[in-house]
Amino acid sequence: MRYKSFAAMPHTRLSVIGFGCWALGEKSGWRDSDDAESIATVHKALECGVTFFDTAPVYGFNGSETLLGKALKGHRDSVTLASKCGMLWDENRTIRRDLSYAAVRGDVEGSLRRLQTDHLDLLQLHWPDHAVPLEETARALHELLAEGKIRAVGVSNFSLADSRAMQRLVPLSTYQGLYNLLERNPESYHNIELEYRTEREILPYCLETGMAFLPYSPLFQGILTGRFTAHSTFGADDVRSANPNLAGTAFARYMAVCEQLKPIAVEAGISMTHMALAWLCQQPAVGPVICGAHRPDQIADNAAAADVLLSAETLTKIQEVLKKNAM
Ligand SMILES: NC(=O)c1ccc[n+]([C@@H]2O[C@H](COP(=O)([O-])OP(=O)(O)OC[C@H]3O[C@@H](n4cnc5c(N)ncnc54)[C@H](OP(=O)(O)O)[C@@H]3O)[C@@H](O)[C@H]2O)c1
């Protein structure tokens, strides 16, 4: 494993490959999630040198945090634990955004309980909530920092303007956003419109501020592993069935680019998975690449991408394909 440090989080060494824990546990919304296997996957991650774990209360409606808390027992001090706040749900599991003072404080107390810890190394504001003034959210964050319940703050899915405005109120260490070889300046995530353009706006902003950029869905929800075709479909029990980019003509367009990238990986003697992850790891603004994984073999494979160094020639070939297929 390799590790990086960032000016905006100077005392923490972050593994270049992280573990995105959305799919942990039986209730995650991803098919095939099994609690015992999820715990084994976390333990394999630790064995491979992965030290950055990203979760959220809303993942599996508390299930991901509960499982991660169990799995990390005895390992808490050797990991960087990141969770999120501001996505609440009702009895029908209808999710709403809420970054009010009470919601932020309540979320953190719940996360600490489920994760069986007295502090989060990083608390991220999951999605912007335009109904609440940033100052109100910042008041909760300042208190949590002063109480030692959180050690650093990050934003996720915020517009550039809102990130800058929040940064004037609270020091920000990280930005988490959608980014992978096929989604470089995406305009939507599932059916949610995105208020930022990753490569165009957010990466330069992270470089300027020394923040670590955490790319989510780094494998385009598994598509960049090269295992799928334009005819692949996802069952109703698979969260990917709710992503309009993974069906119909949009999916066919993405798969066509994927097919153009495959020979570059073959020529470089590496898998598509490793090429997609190494491409992210080699970018200076990019911090832990938070890969999702269901099984120990998947996280082990992802962790091994940290040792892959793409040559200048391979990077140029990738760039040519991306340029030809601006999307
Ligand atoms: N901030 C946000 O709003 C936000 C939004 C989305 C995600 N996230 C974070 O980002 C993390 C990762 O994103 P993601 O789970 O959407 O997508 P991802 O990491 O791009 O894809 C994960 C999926 O790819 C497949 N996979 C992973 N490694 C593999 C390997 N080595 N070989 C073959 N298949 C492999 C697995 O699915 P199958 O085995 O089922 O194919 C896995 O569940 C999440 O867990 C979460 O922490 C954050």
Can you describe this structure?
This protein is an alpha/beta fold. It has a single domain (3-226, 272-310), classed as TIM Barrel, CATH 3.20.20.100. 38% of the residues lie in helices and 17% in strands. The chain has ten helices and 14 strands. It has an eight-stranded parallel beta sheet. Strand 9, helix 5 and strand 10 (174-178) form a beta-alpha-beta unit. The longest helix is centred in the last third of the chain and has 21 residues, at 248-268. The relative contact order is 0.14. The mean pLDDT is 95. Residues 20-23, 30, 54, 126, 156-157, 176, 216-222, 225, 273, 290-294, 298, 301-302 line the site of NADP nicotinamide-adenine-dinucleotide phosphate.
In helices, the fraction of residues equals: 25-40%
CATH H-level homologous superfamily name: NADP-dependent oxidoreductase domain
What is the alpha-carbon Rg in Å? 19 Å
Sheet-strand content, in percent, reads 15-25%
Report on the biggest sheet: 8 strands, parallel
Task: Describe the oligomeric state of these chains in a short phrase.
Answer: single chain
Q: Any idea what the shape is? A: globular
Order of helices and strands: EEEHEHEEEHEHEHEEEHEHHEHH
* Ligands bound to this protein structure: NADP nicotinamide-adenine-dinucleotide phosphate
